[in-house]
Amino acid sequence: MKQLQKTSKKISAFAQYKSLSIQFSLDGFSFYVSNSETKEPLLFTKYAFTKTIASPELLLEKVIAIFDTDKDLQQDFTSVFAIHQNNLATIVPNELFDRNNLAPYLKYTVKTLKTDFITYDLHNIIAANTVYIPYVNINNFIFQNFGEFEYKHHSTVLIDKLLSYSEQDSEEQFFVHVSPNYVDLVVCKEGRLLFYNSFNYTTKEDFIYYILFTAEQLQMNPNYFQLTFTGDIEKESDLYDITYNYVRNIHFINPIDSFFADSEDFSNHSNFILTS
Predict the structure, then answer these.
(1) Global pTM?
(2) Within its chain, how far is the Cα of 104 from the centroid?
(3) Top-level class of domain 4-86+135-148
């Protein structure tokens, strides 16, 4: 059985200096190559796993196999940026943050081990930090291949991009970023973060429950607020259908100058974190 499904979009353009951005999770691996000088996109490739990988160790095996066979990854890059996508994270406001004592921030929401490496990202827009557990083995592999590189948690990148995207909106904006097994919920208004959390889901009923529960806690009426989807969701899906049964105003995010505007394989909203 085929264990990897590869989909790619490539622009036939030469660039002497290239930047690489990669995003990985237990469900897949994607990478994006751009011109280091002009920031123009050159290539996007996505590998979707047929089954969720059981552990970071097995994920590393997949990543190594991809690097060994994909020639687009076997070149020199001027910079490398990695995005760790998992739900092993929490947000801590600056006034409560102690960078020398990170473990307590995760103990109530994430099952941690004494051997876990815990780090943090400083947000660009809000006065807060994302505390999380990265895939250290993947980081080590990337360092072995490329040397120094930058990395962040996917929620850091997602929140900062959504805050920038919605900074002019005077109404509350409810964003739902969909992954195969969990969902990120982001509520913001005029560049301010009002709510963020991520939830595991198995069924479409789980999925809509978390959306409606969050809306109820924030006193947002499903008949009036605007819900905007990003990520792995399409209009012809059970997740969309059940959401539309309860929420009246549903949209897909429409990034400016999206690389996928004319793509047959990728939706405009599908890879907002990595490419927008």
Answers:
(1) 0.93
(2) 24
(3) alpha beta
